[in-house]
């Protein structure tokens, strides 16, 4: 197939030490998988190419950077998380710092999606604890930011936080994530906004349950009272 042909080309370029040729071959392979919407094959090829004997660091970097462009195009959350995990695993020590930070930020955003499945509301402090982050507050765009590690300040990578804000906003807009942040009290809500009719119906059901419980309690009290009076008369 086409992938096998490109793998042969990649092998020839890699063994010849041709950096440009190897980079083009690995990029062509990931592009081919992406265009075919073969997400599992894409993950498999990324792992395979990264582990090939004598693989060039520049080729792995180019491959990861190219695949990162496809993250937002994944068809569902599970596929997106798998792609990010794959890139995270193969990139350790093999890609440049900027790509590492970008990938790390994306990983945290996907972890937020996982948290949102189990929490309806959560404090920013608790969210930071779950993500193993140190929470810091900045005035930049009046938005709370999370400091990944102190080196971000030293390297001037604060702009990555703006990228994180953009991805979060995109996730909310695309309905991949429902989130609302109450900055003054530091609460993140993952609940979907309820229609006024739904709220009223919910209240009506709860009131009905409450009245039913009160009625049963009254019957039980009356029953116990009658039993107690009967004992006294006896």
Automatic annotation (TrEMBL):
InterPro entries, A to Z: PCI_dom, PSMD12-CSN4-like_N, PSMD12/CSN4, RPN5_C, WH-like_DNA-bd_sf
A cellular-component GO term for this protein: cytoplasm
Bilayer-spanning residue ranges: none
Keywords: Proteasome
Leader peptide range in chain numbering: none
Domain PCI: from-to ranges: 98-210
Highest taxon, organism lineage: Eukaryota
Family: Belongs to the proteasome subunit p55 family.
Record-given protein name: PCI domain-containing protein
């Amino acid at each position: 197939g086409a992938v096998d042909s490109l793998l042969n080309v990649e092998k020839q370029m890699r063994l010849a030490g041709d950096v440009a040729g190897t980079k083009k071959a690995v990029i062509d392979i990931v592009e081919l998988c992406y265009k075919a919407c073969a997400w599992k094959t894409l993950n498999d090829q990324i792992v395979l190419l990264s582990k090939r004997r004598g693989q060039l660091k520049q080729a792995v970097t180019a491959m990861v950077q190219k695949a990162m462009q496809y993250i937002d195009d994944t068809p569902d959350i599970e596929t997106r998380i798998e792609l990010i995990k794959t890139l995270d695993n193969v990139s350790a020590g093999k890609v440049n710092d900027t790509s590492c930070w970008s990938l790390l930020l994306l990983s945290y955003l996907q972890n937020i999606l996982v948290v949102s499945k189990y929490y309806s509301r959560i404090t920013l402090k608790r969210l930071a604890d779950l993500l193993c982050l140190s929470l810091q507050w900045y005035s930049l765009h009046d938005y709370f930011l999370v400091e990944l590690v102190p080196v971000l300040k030293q390297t001037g990578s604060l702009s990555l936080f703006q990228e994180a804000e953009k991805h979060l906003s995109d996730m909310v807009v695309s309905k991949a994530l429902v989130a609302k942040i109450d900055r003054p009290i530091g609460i993140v809500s993952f609940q979907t906004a309820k229609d006024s009719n739904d709220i009223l119906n919910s209240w009506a059901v709860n009131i009905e349950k409450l009245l039913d419980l009160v009625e049963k309690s009254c019957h039980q009290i009356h029953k116990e009272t009658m039993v107690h009076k009967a004992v006294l008369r006896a």
